[in-house]
Amino acid sequence: MNNALEQSREEEISAEMAQEEEQALRMQLYMLLAQMLRAEPDESLLNQLRQIEAQPDDASPMVKAWAELRMAADMAKTDELADEYHQLFIGIGRGELVPFASWYLTGFLMEKPLAKLRQDLQILGYEREDSVHEPEDHAAALFEVMAMMLQEGIGYDQQKDFFQQHIGSWIGRFMEDLMVADAARFYRSVGQLGKQFMDIEEAYFSMMT
Fold it and tell me: 92 by DSSP, 3-state: which?
């Protein structure tokens, strides 16, 4: 009996550790995508991306996306990345892409999706920092919120509600647009990684309905 109880407890601990590791990896990936969508990668981040380990025997879409991001980082130069980021997301008047939920959901900025997001952020206790000037429904900001929820151990149901309400409804289209944008070179790999991760998140949140 004691051996069975000990084995059961060991299995529980092992499952808890695996779950904690999974949540940590999700948080790190959300933060990485947020960082690359908030601004072009600096040399320090590029060097980190260049250290991504290849897994040649693994042909999964996510592993391929990581490999493409590493290759893109190998070829990237910071001054060219600054120009690419500007053309994609800033431009003169606006960039080639508009990375805001309201734009993708309504065709306009500062619309109802943003108002609903602000209500939900208030409930969660999150506020926009004074140094951030763009609306809260920017893709980078939404990924930062998901990362904070994971870091703070906010539960599955709240994560799911936030993701489905404010991210899953549009982010896949944005990532697909990023993968084929005329100005995108390095950022095509960011779009690919983002699309694969969002597909995984969609499956994760639909798995336990």
Answer: strand
Q: What is the mean pLDDT of the chain?
A: 90
CATH number of the domain where residue 198 is located = 1.10.3480.10
**Would you say residue 80 has pLDDT above 90?**
yes
Pair of tokens at residue 196 = 């694969």
What is the DSSP-derived secondary structure letter of residue 52?
P
The residue with tokens 């734009």 is: 103
What are the backbone angles phi and psi of residue 106, rounded to the nearest 5°?
-130, -15
pTM confidence score: 0.89
Distance CA 109, CA 101 (A): 8
**3-state DSSP assignment of residue 200:** helix
Which residue carries 């549009």 as its tokens? Answer: 170
Distance CA 47, CA 64 (A): 19
How far is residue 138's CA from residue 121's CA, in Å, rounded to a whole number? 13
User: What would the pLDDT profile of 85-116 be if each residue is shown by its tens digit?
Assistant: 999 999 988 999 999 999 999 999 999 999 99
The domain total for the chain is 1
Full domain range(s) for residue 149 = 2-207
| Calpha distance 185→80 (Å, rounded) | 10
